[in-house]
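Allow me, if you will, to draw on your knowledge of protein folds for a short while. I have a record of one protein: its chain in single-letter code and its fold written as discrete structure tokens. I remain grateful for any guidance, and I place the record below:
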Amino acid sequence: MLLSGKKALVTGARRNIGRGIVQALAEAGCDVGFNDLEADQDVDETLRLVESAGRKTAFFEADISNASDVSGMIDEFVKRFGSIDILVNNPYYGEGRPFLDITEEIWDKTLDVCLKGFFLCSQTAAKEMVRQGTGGSIVSISSVHADRTWLNDTCYGTAKAAILRLTMSMACELAAHNIRCNAVLPGYMDTSHTFGSPAPEHGSAPEKTHGYIPTRRYGTPEDIGRAVTFLSSPHAANINGVALPVDGGLLTTGVT
């Protein structure tokens, strides 16, 4: 129970990687609120999973690229939970297009969700953490696309790279308030993997990806959740401004 009594908000988290992060934080003792753009049966299932772990939870429907929505969400979170100790920026949007086919609309939407939203949530949560005076942790989910180029990933890769630069600036400026800021870079993912079930075996990834991934298995939402939990915990008290790949070694290979 590394994070017993802490209050965490995870954005873009009704399913997949976001749900894995929510579950890992709840398992570590956090009360966890989570956000997404809309409510559906995935929200109900994530609420159930956190409640079954004995932790307090709530869902916040908001557009994280809208400053008014973000302000209202953070205010409501603090009213319900009493404080905010951990923020995890996780929302995903990506539409692969060749560079010459990218429209202004695709560019704007990708940057709104994958960069502007991270900035708005981080700034608003950080202001509340400063007001509380007890420090905190902000972890942003980037991607191996921040450090490696694939075809048709211009918008997504640009946003994910910018998240790393944003994280570094936040880490530098917010450390004075005892707020640590780090990023996690997932690689190839099996988002269908069930939290708490045995980890995939070595060699379980499709053979065509073995040249990419030294561990020869895909990551899981639980892998990402564990990394986020560690970076938010006292065990990482002097880790700040780090970009942590959770990719099975993909970035070591030089393969694209």
Observations:
- The longest strand covers residues 179-186.
- Residues 7-253 form a domain with the Rossmann fold fold (CATH 3.40.50.720).
- The mean pLDDT is 95.
- Residues 167 and 197 are 32 Å apart (CA to CA).
